[in-house]
Amino acid sequence: MPVLNPHPNQTSDLPPALGTDPATVPVPKPSSSRRSTRAFPACANPRCASGWLQLWRQRRVPVVEGGWLCSPACTRARVEDLLRREYAGAGPVPPHRHRVPIGLVLLTQGWITHQHLKEGLEAQRNAARADPGSGMRLGEWLVAHRGLNEARLTHALGLQWSCPVFSLERHGDNLPVTIIPRLLSESFGFVPLRLTSSGMLYLAFEDRIDHSLALAIERMTSLRVESGLLSTTEFAEAHRRLSEGRFAPARMIEAASVDLLAEAFSRLIEKEKPAEARLVRVRDLLWLRLWRKAEEIVPASASGSRVEDVIGAVTQFTCDIS
User: Fold this and answer.
1) Is 190 left (phi over 0), alpha (psi -120 to 50) or beta?
2) For 236-281, how does the pLDDT look when each residue is reduced to its tens digit (9 = 90+)?
3) Of 158-162, 170-174, 178-182, 189-193, the least confident
4) Interhelix angle for 258-272 vs 72-87, to 10°?
5) In order of start, what are the domains of the chain with their CATH numbers?
6) CB-CB contact of 258 with 83 (8 Å)
7) Residue 255: what are its φ and ψ, rounded to 5°?
8) Which of 46, 154, 223, 236 is a plausible cystine mate for 231, CB 3.0–4.6 Å?
């Protein structure tokens, strides 16, 4: 298994751009100029060469992002198209830089003094000189050494990120653990806090918001995602509760190239014959979700044996889908 990056703002190498950036486009519903009826659906592969032979095919699955696929060859072609879409515009993600540093936010609110800020910045510089990879955070030092209240630090981070601050007491009674694969939550440091009846998913982070991850979850689940922060103590408690939950079945697939990953995904889809499958990229990972029954294709029912999550990772980029 590859070493996963627990900090979403750190950079990672990805395959070269292959098309339009998927972050600006939701998961599309397949469209075709060919006629499709309830009795005789059209293959979702736009390059399908089967023609009227489709009528004699004794299969109504698999379905990938709303489109029926008439043969293993068309499944492979469709998966390749989806991988092109997901890897389009992929590249290193620069670290987010705020216009207003957290120390200035705390100082403006009157929660620290000028002397506290000066001492904290000096301690941060000393730590960086002693260990360049230490990554000591100013806010954590102020909490540990100058009596800054943890709740005030979280509130300041919320002001810095322009996002809400969640309360575990209000939102964390019944964590929707089946919405997100365990591997993604542990790799990228977030907790699904609450799923409302109106289709709103509250997503909690500890000290920074990962908007690209929230968008990927929206595309996969069709839920509206509200991202916010939890204090360090509450985030640790929420993560503990999450780890005790029962996640949907999941597996990890590693491949030496994008081409081999496309082959693995295609074989899996052909084997499982899902009533629906969706694919999104989450940083340097691919998240494939398979629904076994058409009537269960709703986010809240992602549980038990009806849904399976597959996380794909490319360990070397030796081959591109052309």
Assistant:
1) beta
2) 999 999 988 888 889 999 999 999 999 999 999 999 999 999 999 9
3) 170-174
4) 130
5) 22-89+248-314 (no CATH), 102-161 (no CATH), 168-243 (3.30.300.160)
6) yes
7) -140, 155
8) 154
